[in-house]
Every structure is written in structure tokens, then in C-alpha cells.
């Protein structure tokens, strides 16, 4: 195995992932624990960190470490102030906050803040965006990157910089409606069977809602079951379709649609597939996706900060 | 006190209300217990009913009793099949289901089902609608009745009949987002202070979202707090404004707005006040409200069923 150059850490709300990276960001090893900041045993981040990385830290003392995600939030290990838009790898590198882990320094990457009329924040996604631009230089000039998930982010990139972004709470809405509203009950009682056709039907209903949106259709997840037109076992797929469809309907409405570049999806492959199907129903085909560009992002920001040698930097 | 003619029962999800009615629907007595169908002790509806009404039933045996609400749902005492739209007091009377309570009969009022492309159901609201038409004959020819709440219903009335309706899950959405999403947390930690101005700001944001709707603004309930532009203590008022504003934005969008009659609100006075403020921000003034027309509805349907003498029936 090549000599390691960097430890990359992706420490979010629900999980802690570590990557051992060799020259040119090659992945030498990785490990995961369900120790996201909401589930870190005793909220003892230092112990969790050392426990996960014990052998790496022992074998390669002094190996630089860089981390991104909610670990840098107020609820995390150390709050890292946001950097303002527009932001790129160099701006993020300039905002790194170093933390003494008790086993060497860990450099935490800042999130990004959007000011102005629509204040907004992200944390963790900035590293995936930087990684996507490193993996696909064609995205640098102009791109629309979509990171679906609990809080789905639509990120505008221009001139290699994260210019601005929008948040849709699609994933969290789905979870709270499934677990805590009357819409989840039929599926809870009947059992859940996935049905791609029902999912598409939900997307279409949202698409065809025009300017009304789905506010008056959410309840149909229940009434279609009561009227026998939707099996209870598939009702969550219909809800998922409605919510993802509403995200697309809202994001794609307005005058600027035709001038927007085709989005590129970053994230979990199964979720990206669902979004690709939804885009297709909106007439937007050939939406590509990149699986976990976060590793490339950690490497790129570490390069910009001088933590690893920057042999293959293409533009500075 | 006049001789009682009817016991009226409003038995919903969270409470059980009983009204003792004299001639011409005059209210002689009433009582309430928090024994809604989700909280009825031991799910023993017969016992709860007899316990609440023991003395009335003993003093006036044979007094007719009529009830509406979720007590007639699958999760209630006895499932009462829905009546189809269009429906009026006579159709509802024809659909009554009589139940032996062990202390005389209780006649349960059916809910109403809308078929066609937008299947939908309501149960309990039909009685309030009938009551509103009994109290205000001016609404009989044509009216738009809005019953805000957990599941807000917009009911179209024409020729004295409930013609169709739409459901917005505004109240339930607010509750699940407050109690189970990231949006509720700041207020939970900071304490809640009501602020009418912040509520109006939320309504305006929804109104001004145009065809995009609030899908990309929900998260602002958090990001505005993070950016210092919204006090955490008021953030739930902003959320409430966004959700009620979205209900109005959605309901009032589309080509048919100008031909829609000014809505009349039926329900809880405090909630009706919030909706009136929201309508005003949409340029719709002089929205009236009727407080608890359900009693008049119970009486009117009992009349149509011949359970009480129909001296003052105006149109048959």
C-alpha cells in the first residue's frame, strides 16, 4: 500500500466516516461508525475520534487530518464560523479551524453562509461541491449541483465558486410525515412495499399541480387509500413522489428555468436514482450523478491549505 | 328551563362534547370531556357516553340523541358509511346510523365523500356546514366555507348543498414540524413568545413566493434564526404564517379566484382571527366568521330526520 498522506473525516448528524488517503487522493482504507454528532457516545468527540482512528494514528503519527460536516456546528465538537458566498477551496482552506484532538490536530472545514434577502447556510455540502469540481472540471465554469437528502441543497456554481444555494426540507418532511402524521399510519399498519409506478404517480401529481403546488394534495395520500385508489402498502411511495415532485416543481418554476444548466446530482446512489426519475417526468433527461465526491473535496481543500503536496493542482 | 328536545353530540379525535337542546335549538346545558376517540378510557365508548350523560338520560329517558364526528369513523364506535357529494341535511339524515348505547339510541351522522378525480373525505365538518346554512340563509345559494384546523377544509356550497371540498393539512403540518423537525428546536430551547408582526411576515413571504410556493422557504424558519434576523422565541409564529400563507396562496391561485365568493370562516375564534389577518394580507377584507355552528347543524339534521318537530323549517 502507498504511504498515506491525509486522513479525511466526514462527520455528520448520523454517522462518522474516516478515509485514509494516499498520493493523488487514492483511497487506501476507510471505516464508519454510527457516531454522528447526535449519537456520539457521551458526546465525547475526542474519544470517538481516537477510538475510530487508533491504529492509523499510532502507525502514522503526524499524519494531517481534515474534517467536514456538522462536527463543526454549534452542536458539534467546535463551532467553525461560516465563510460567505462566493466561496471556493481556497476560501474554505482560509477558514479552517484547528482542533487539538489529543492525538494530533484535526482541521475543521467551515460551512458556507449566504447573506442578502435569502439568508441560508450549509455545512458539509461545501466539501462535496468542491470535490465535484475537482472530479469534473467541466463543472467549474457554470453548474447547478443538487445534493438531495434530509435538507436538499440546490447549489449554483460559477467561475469555480459556490455562488448561492437554496434549501428544500424534502427528506425531513418525508420523515416527519411518515413517522408522526396521519399520512404514515396506513403504511405503518399495512407494511411498506416499494412501488416505482406509484412513486412516479406522486411526482406527476405534483408536476401537474401548476402554481397551486401540493398544499391541497398532501391529504390525498390518505384519501386515495380510503377511496381504494392507492394501496396502503404503497402510500409512502406516493408521498415521496409528491414531495420530491414539489421540490422540482418549485425549483423549476419561474422565469429563469430555461437558462439554468442541467443539474448534476451528488449523493446517495439510490436517492439520486429517484431524483433522476423525477427529472425525467419533468422532461429533463440525462441528469448525471456523482457518488460521494466528498473524499475528493476533503483532499482538494487540504491541498489548498498546504496540508498535502499539491502536485496536480490545475488552477490556483 | 324549557323541556329538552334533543341531545347533540360532537365526538371528535380529541374531545367529547354534549349539548342539551330545547325547542328551536336553544342551548339548555352542555358539557365536555377530553374523551375524544383517541383518548376514550379503555376505548369503551358506551361507558364514556353513559358516564357523561347519566343524569340527562335518567331525567329524560327516550330523549333523541344525534352525534357527529370521528366517532363514526373506522376508529370510532361504529363506522358510518360516507354520503356522496352533493349532500345536504336531508341526505345526511337519510344516512344516519342508529346505535344502541345501552341507554337509548344514538343516531350517528355520516361524513361526506367526494368522488371523481380528487377523492376526498370529511367527517364532522358536514354538520358545521349544515349549521352555518341554518344560521345564515344568505349562504345557501352559494358560499365558500373555510373550516381551519388540523385538516383545514375549504367547502363549496351551492343550492343549499355541500358540492365539493379541498383539504389542507395546515394544522397537522405545523404540529409535526414544531414537535419533530429541526424547525421547532430553537423555539423549544428559547421559549415561545407570540408575535403578530412575525406571523404576518411569514404570511407575506408565502404570498410573495408566487408560483414557487414555500417549498424552498420552510428552511428559512431556521436560517433566519441562525442569521439573527428572526428571534428564536418568535420562530413558530413565522412558521405558522408561512403555512397558513401557503394555504391561502395555493387556494387562491389559478384562474377561478375572482369568481369565488368571499370565504366565511367556521371554527375556533382565535384561529379564525389568524386566518382573517392572513386574508387581509392577500387583499381580501371583511371575511366573516361563525363560532361553532355545529349545534345548529345537529339540530337541523335531527329535524330533517324527524327526530325533533320541524316547526321552523324554512325549505323542504
Would you mind describing this structure in some detail?
- Two copies of one chain form a homodimer.
- Chain A is an alpha/beta fold.
- Chain A has two domains: 6-140 and 293-304, Nucleotidyltransferase, domain 5 (2-Layer Sandwich); 170-290, Nucleotidyltransferase, domain 5, CATH 3.30.420.
- Chain A has ten helices and 14 strands.
- Chain A has helices at residues 45-59, 89-94, 125-135, 170-180, 185-190, 196-207, 220-226, 235-252, 269-281, 294-304; strands at residues 6-11, 16-21, 27-33, 65-68, 83-84, 97-100, 105-108, 112-114, 120-122, 142-147, 152-158, 161-168, 264-266, 288-290.
- In chain A, the strands form three sheets. Chain A has a six-stranded mixed β-sheet with strand order 3-2-1-4-7-6, with helices on both faces. The first copy, chain A, has a five-stranded mixed β-sheet with strand order 12-11-10-13-14, with helices on both faces.
- The model of chain A is unreliable at 312-316 (pLDDT under 50).
- The interface between A and B is large, with 43 and 43 residues.
